[in-house]
Amino acid sequence: MSKRFLPLLFLLLASALPATTFTSKSLLFADSYMLRAQGADANYWNPALLSSENPDFWMPAANIGFFAGNNSLNIDLYNFIMSEDYLDDEDKQRILDAIDDKLAFNFGGQIGLFGFTLGDLALSGSVHLAARAALTEKIVELALYGNGDGSQVYEFTKDENYVDALSYADVTLGWGDIRLPLPKVIPDIEFGIAVSALAGLGSAETAELTGFLSSNLDGLNIEMDALQRTAAGGAGFKALLGLHSEPLKNLHVGITLDNVLGFIRWNMLREDFAYHFAADSVYVSDIQEDIEDLYTDEYTQTEGDPFTTTLPPELRVAVLYHTRQASFSADLIKGFGEAENVSRKLRYAVGAELTPIPFLPIHLGYGSGNDGYPWRMSYGLGLRFKVVELGLGIQSIETILPGTSSKGIAFATYFNLRF
Amino acid sequence: MKYLFAVGVVALLALCACDIAEPQMPQWDVDLTVPLMNERFLVSELVDSVNIVTGENQVLTLVNTGQAETPIFGHVNFNPGIEVDNLALISGTDVHLTLPLIDPTGTVFLSYGEFTQGTLGYYFDVADPANTTVSISLPDIRDAAGNPLVLNDDATPNWHSYNLPGNRIGIEDSGLIQDSLRFIFHVQTNQPDGTPVGTAAIRLNSQIGFRVFQGYLYAYLRALEGTVSTIEIEYPLDLEEAIELQEASVYIEVTNEVGFGAEFHGSIRATNSNTGEVRIIPILDNLGNPYQVAPATLTGSTITELNFANNISQILQIMPDTVEIFDAYLLINGGANGVPGFVEEHDKLYCSYQINAPFTFELFDHTFQLSEVTEVELSQENQDLISDNVLAASLTNQIVNHIPIGAMATVYVGTTPNIDPANPATYALSRTVTLHSSEYTGPDVNQDGEQLISLALSETDMEVFANPFVYLLWTFSFEPSNGPVTIYASPADYIQVKSMLTVRMHVGEDE
Question: Inter-chain contact A411–B502, Cβ cutoff 8 Å?
Fold first, then answer.
């Protein structure tokens, strides 16, 4: 046994977390952050919270967050496999049980380029990267068990096999603390809006993937069609609408709708990579023939048509209660589509900030999981002074504490000036 | 950057306490199924158009052929028995004498002939040889130039001989029977006319033979001898113990260069040399009569086709390994369709015969084995591969049998060539597979006519393949047919075989 450098392994494994909106500090609360975002952060979480009372300035390049993980593998499983001289059926099943339909990897990151507030306004810019890849569990099953008696037909679809990536930069202008004209009996409700000009840096998408494999008395039958669409250089837009209220003292509620009218139109460089492979009823006895006659394969690279990446809207509802020495929050998140950074599956996140020592906040968070989004725990530690706030934290996937059972890890730092 | 570096170091330190095992590939077993073949074996592929053909109604038919021919026809002979003595010779008078030219046996009736044998004897006895000349004209006998034969007296009072070969008799193609022979004796002398000058005698009382003959032949027999070839049938293994042919016919094609019609007489003799059983059947038509062979015509030879099916199955039921035409001859009885026939000495009758045995037979439960074991050499690499990685194997065949033949095959696998199926100590393992016929109805065949046949080898069984040489001995037996079955060679008659190999393999690095 030896000590190894874990991040390398995790990066190799990539990650399986469906990316979602995050900024560096939000990672420390497992994304239960909608009502915690202040200053320039609010441009991405709830612009209603933009207020001249919370001036903010991001230290350039000091607000960074990234994550990498997967939905199946962890160090424990790796150690287990390496420790076994022989994998029996029980061991194989343990490996397969760890995989939920697909071996999915995901990683992403966000770098805050700049951000500052001016009264109720904020202007910020950041770079976002989200990528995901998946390989069906059937491949692992094939490797471990073989194709058995040949009775099974292995089908491959885009749902379980894909490589997607999206990278873009934004320049976001937010305007918040807009009080809605409501009767006095109704608590104040602030409205905010942030609009983002998006610059598409790169996109890769598995647009089509269908195939099957079988090997039995009907011969070896393989068919695979894949279309990978890539692009670089695009422009787009999105808007974030938010509401905030404090109906009771220290109790805040909010609702946001992100990615309103969100899209990136890819007009500049576009390449489509299409691959087709088919082998129909091939038998060993056929191999004496010219083997190239036994299959067809075709690889084409063409300039793709301009296309639009739609950023599906995402609804978030949150509540935050804070006391003198702690704050607690809960966010409920629901996307209205599937994309590299949005999931249609409902999930929630709860977060806490403990400040027994006021200048030394402790950040905690828990994000629930769903079929494509494992649960995670976040831990962070900051230093908060009157004009400076900084901190760092980590996130552990499907384990309470980061360790050999984690299926991924996330790091984040933040460094803001308040003036 | 220092800030970022510090953050990174802190974050990584938080995780560096994890223990990660050295990469070490474990081992495990996988079951791999590989499709081996998908072949349709059409019965019609057996047709080679030589020994196996597609017969009537697309029935697969075994064909064997043989030839026979008569010796060259040779000469037509008979002895006319002509003999005249003391014939008076008168001065100044021609003596005309006509004698019958008849075969006393009644066999030969001559119309025209070219002599190849025969001697004419004549004798003159004159009183004054110095002043007397005698000649004999035979207007019915001519030389090659068409001049009548004239024999002159050389005045010697002895018997003289004249060899007839080279002469002709009769009128070619006239159709008239030359049943007499004319002689004209012409005497020249210095004596007054009417004066007896001596006597003469004529003999043609030995065999006369004709190289070319026209006329009639009765009860004239020519044996098919000399070059009669037999049909040798080699059955693979002792297949004849397992099947019994039910139908057969003989097709005989007679090419006749002889201008006489004939009756074909003979028998077919079949012999099973293993059992010693012999069966002989006469070659007769459906009415029990001999087949008729048509005469050649003036334009050339004729071909007569004889189809003979009666009782052939009887001889094939003993599964003979030799079939031959036996005791065959041609009997000429007359001419050619009512007119005189013709023949030349080198004419022959050729006879080719063909036994057509449709694949209609009955199958019996009899086990027969290949006479030799099959040796399989395994390289060290393959031995190691099998012993180290292959744990078990199973060959699965999906067979659709559209042929009414079922069989059971057993393979005996051993490490020495001395495999005796009766002695389990001589082989390491054996496996038996059964292929049902198309007539089979039962649980082994599904509604689509597919039957699954599997051959499984366990890890222990596989050990035999870790030897440098492996020997295989096959035995077979047919599924009894319970009656005759017929094998057709249409596109719908085939055996479709799909097979796949499932191997349990050990993967991973060896220790």
Answer: no
Query: How big, in percent rounded to 5, are the helix, strand and coil portions of chain B?
Result: 10, 55, 35
Answer whether A408's CB lies under 8 Å from A10's CB: yes
* 3-state secondary structure (DSSP) of residue B261: coil
Provide the pairing of β-strand A86-87 with B27-42. Answer: parallel
Q: Which residues contact B411 (CB under 8 A, 6 or more apart)?
A: B430, B431, B432, B472, B473, B474
Q: Which residues does residue A272 pair with via DSSP β-bridges, in sequence order?
A: A229, A302
pLDDT at A49 over 50: yes
Residue pair A355/A385 in contact by the 8 Å Cβ criterion:
no
- Residue A71, pLDDT > 80, answer yes
Q: Record the pTM.
A: 0.69
pLDDT at A324 over 90: no
Q: Has residue A1 been placed in a domain? A: no
Find out whether B189 and B128 touch, Cβ atoms under 8 Å: yes
Does position B246 have pLDDT exceeding 80, yes or no? no
> Residue A390 is encoded by which pair of tokens?
């900084």
Give the number of domains in chain B: 3
User: Residue B130's domain is classified under what CATH number?
Assistant: 2.60.120
CB contact under 8 A, B16 and A409: no
Prediction ipTM score: 0.76
B349 CB neighbour count, 10 Å cutoff: 24
Give the integer Cα–Cα distance in Å for A1 and B248.
Answer: 83
Spatial CA neighbour of B132 closest among B209, B62, B185: B185
**Rounded CA separation B294/B93 (Å):** 51
Range among A334-338, B232-236, B420-424 rated most confident: B420-424
- For an interface test with A, the pick among B2, B4, B7, B498 (most A C-beta atoms closer than 10 Å) comes out as B7
- The closest alpha carbon to A327, from A358, A291, A302, belongs to A358
- Give dist(CA A262, CA A245) in Å, integer: 26
Query: DSSP letters of A361-401?
Result: -EEEEEE--BTTB--EEEEEEEEE-SSEEEEEEEEEESSSS
User: Is some CB atom of chain A closer than 8 A to the CB atom of B500?
Assistant: yes
Most A-contacting residue of B500, B504, B505, B509 (CB-CB within 10 A), to test interface: B500
β-bridge partners, A299? A275
Q: Given pLDDT bands bounded at 50, 70 and 90, which one contains residue B238?
A: low
The domain of B99 spans 81-105+116-206
Contact A85 B27 (CB under 8 A): yes
| pLDDT, tens digit (0-9, with 9 covering 90-100), for A142-185 | 999 999 989 999 999 998 999 988 899 999 999 999 998 888 88
Predicted confidence (pLDDT) at residue A11 exceeds the cutoff of 50? no
**Same domain, yes or no: B98 and B64:** no
Q: Which domain holds residue A186?
A: 6-417
Does residue A61 carry a pLDDT above 80?
A: no
Within B226-372, residue ranges assigned H as helices are: 312-316
Taking only the tens place, the pLDDT of each residue in B362-385 is 888 878 777 788 888 888 888 888
CA distance A154 to A134: 16
Is the CB of B38 less than 8 angstroms away from the CB of A281? yes
B306 in any annotated domain: yes
Same domain, B293 and B393: no
| Strand locations in B43-153 (E) | 52-54, 60-69, 76-78, 82-90, 95-100, 108-117, 119-126, 132-142, 148-152
* pLDDT tens column, A368-405: 987 666 788 999 999 999 889 999 999 888 888 888 88
CA distances from B495 to B46, B77, B437, B483 (A): 12, 64, 10, 21
| Alpha helices, DSSP H, located in A98-151 | 137-145
Last residue of a domain, one of B358, B386, B417: B358
